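To the team - adenosine-5'-diphosphate complex, inputs and output below.
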Amino acid sequence: MKIAVYPGSFDPVTKGHIDILKNGAEIFDKVIIAVANNSEKNSFLTVSERVELIRESVKEFENVEVDSFDGLTIEYAKKVGAKVILRGLRAVSDFEYEMQLSQANSALSSDIKTIFLITKPKYNFISSRTIKEIFLNNGDISKFVPDCVREFLMQNKERLN
Ligand code: ADP
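Output:
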């Protein structure tokens, strides 16, 4: 069984993330989206909120699981029996960072490979950070995030502001 881990902050999950995930789910037998629990201090949503919103957004995919983890991604990948780390690429600006991360992971554990998928052009500019900016400035984020994310953010607007 070919298992891939798709790690990230997903703060919050966007349609760009879901596009990468959808393609990954067609390639691998199982994809585990794993919310990294190491940057909690500066985060917008809590890890459990992010996990719940991803769960709601991916419920139609039968071979996708959602989890969170602490520590190194490769240790988590080993724990769940994944040989692949899945990451998304948007623009050249992602490349440098993603290459370093992938090479660092490869130096730590050469049997776990990172595979990159490129998003559809219409999702190319979407980042969690841009979504937060638009939302906090009262812009319409409905084209960029799953409905449940937009609803959750609207319901919690006072706290998030
Ligand atoms: P991180 O904080 O680890 O970069 P993110 O949640 O921002 O986590 O992103 C997780 C992964 O998804 C990264 O590989 C990132 O490049 C990718 N990604 C984010 N947004 C998009 C998008 N719109 N299209 C394709 N890939 C994306």
